[in-house]
Structures are given as structure tokens and as C-alpha cells.
Write a structure and sequence with these properties.
Elements lengths: L5 E2 L1 H9 L8 E8 L5 E8 L6 E5 L2 E5 L11 E7 L2 E7 L5 E2 L5 E3 L1
Parallel strand pairs: 1-6, 2-5
Antiparallel strand pairs: 2-3, 3-9, 4-5, 6-7, 8-9
Length: 107
């Protein structure tokens, strides 16, 4: 059974910090072909579309298009702050392998 991805409070809080919702934008998480492992994530601020799954929290929105949704079933969208930089990260149980860049995976 496919469950929608979850978004952590930390990710929603970061969207709030950068003012995404205030500008009417949502964080788009998409899966595209390509990357070093076959698929790659595209994460960007975008306008929601009619066919998007909208995940809401803290007055912010994360959107996933219908094509990407099956690839992100049960995934966790989080925000990570590390010494090397801060970024949105995806913990995806569907990925059988991933590469060091953290944006590419295979299934």
C-alpha cells in the first residue's frame, strides 16, 4: 500500500523561515529520470498545480506531482543542517541504492 510522504516539522519550519508560504510558494519535491543512479530528486520552490498532492503544516505547503508520488511513497522529507551546509533531504525507503550526492537514487 502506498502512503504519502511525510514532512517533518523541521522542514516546515525552514519553509516558514525563508518565507515560502508568504510568497504563495510551496516546496516542490519531484522525481526525474537521470542522475548518477537512475533517478534524481528535484527540490525547488514552485507554484502548486491542480494535480499535486499538497502536504500542509505550520502554514506552509509541500507539493508532489502525481508522476513522482509513487516513487516517494512512505518517504520522509526533512531539513538537515550540517557543517557542510543546510538542505532539504529525503529519506526514501523505496530507494535500493543512492549515491554520495544525496540527490540521486535507484529502485
Amino acid at each position: 500500500m502506498q502512503l504519502p510522504p511525510k514532512v517533518t516539522d523541521r522542514a516546515f519550519e525552514r519553509l516558514s523561515e525563508i518565507g515560502a508560504g508568504a510568497e504563495g510558494k510551496a516546496l516542490r519535491v519531484a522525481v526525474e529520470g537521470g542522475g548518477c543512479s537512475g533517478f534524481q530528486y528535484e527540490i525547488k520552490l514552485d507554484d502548486p498545480s491542480d494535480d499535486d498532492l499538497v502536504l500542509e503544516g505550520h502554514g506552509e505547503r509541500v507539493v508532489v506531482d502525481s508522476v513522482s508520488l509513487p516513487f516517494l511513497s512512505n518517504a520522509v522529507i526533512d531539513f538537515s543542517e550540517e557543517l557542510i551546509g543546510a538542505r532539504f533531504v529525503i529519506e526514501n525507503p523505496n530507494a535500493t541504492s543512492s549515491c554520495g550526492c544525496g540527490t540521486s537514487f535507484s529502485m
